[in-house]
Amino acid sequence: MTTDILPESDTRPESNPDEPKQRPGRRRLVAIAVVAVLLLGASTAAAFAWWPGQKADVRAGTTLVTAEGMAARYGIDVNLIGVTAAGGLIEFRYQVVDPDKADRMIHDTTLLPIVVVEDTGATMVISRPHHASELELGGTYFFLFANSHNAIHPGSLVTLVLGDSRLEHIEARG
Question: What is the value of pTM for the model shown?
């Protein structure tokens, strides 16, 4: 009994026997590489969209006011922006000069105070007010901000943004 070996058949249509055969996974590998590059590009774009330096400046579109202007608009006299809790917190302390206007600031989330470091643009925002009682004329109150990335140091110049107004060049105290 003898066994004959049949020649290997080429099932590719109109194939050229001199042409080298492609590896079966090559197209899949190219497709995976293309998808990886696209995903990397999309994730990089998303990272830059969330990067602090790429965000819009909250000071844009606001009106520069004096301390007296801030009191007239929002009923507060800014007493202090200070670095506290071993540098981990920023305290914004104010005195109420008009309780009705100041009350809007703690109940309207569009009027929550924002502190911006003038030389870097780093922005400190609180998510909600913490006062539960009614504000009294002459009363002193405060907001605390997390000092993210130690952005504010004693001596830093900051801008306070309230609603559509901003008070510039406030020196942070330690």
Answer: 0.66
